Amino acid sequence: MIFNNESAKKVAELLLQIKAIKLQSANPFIWASGWKSPIYCDNRKALSYPPVRTYIRQQFVDAVKEFFPTVDVIAGVATGGIAHGVLVAEALGLPFAYVRSSSKEHGMQNLIEGEIEKGQNIVVIEDLISTGGSSLKAVEELRKNGGNVLGMLAIFSYNFDESVKNFEANKCKLYTLSNYNVLLDTAVKTNYISEKDVNSLNQWRENPKTWDVK
User: Fold this and answer.
1) CA–CA separation, 134 and 78 (whole Å)
2) Which CATH number fits domain 5-206: 3.40.50.2000, 3.40.50.2020, 3.40.630.10, 3.40.50.300?
3) Which of 76, 108, 149, 203 has the fewest CB atoms within 10 Å around its CB?
4) For the whole prediction, is pTM greater than 0.85?
């Protein structure tokens, strides 16, 4: 679910302006999974643009206040959610922790860095949602350590049906600042892409595993 329809358009516009999101259906990118993709999303770039990162931070802060007012701790998902999560925690005056993708090979071999006490209400910050697999692993780890995960906030989601089902199955509320549908609409209106590109981009989102350039 989108946090705010108007700000979703603004977030999409800003991400396109700084080229954090690139759309090129004729010359697709190759993801780590091997999928061919007409879109590449790198929300880390927003951190290099103070006005953009500030806008994103404030949208996160407003979303936390609206949907999760009883939050005790902000947690980021490594690595993309760490910096944004710190900014949100700082703005709210809350503790921060983050969840690694895998345990350290030395020391305490922690998956969670920072202090999480049993029963604390946690909001998880993520930069990008594709299938939701890695994000939900972080949620699972926080729950295993006694945290009460209220939900997750992310900058952007591809809106895959698989991700919707995964979040529902794991009983985790998800709100995003923008998403794939808003992005395409914004990209057309700002002449970033043409109407003829939209069909191919929509076909990819419906079946990304088998999509190929037509």
Assistant:
1) 9
2) 3.40.50.2020
3) 108
4) yes
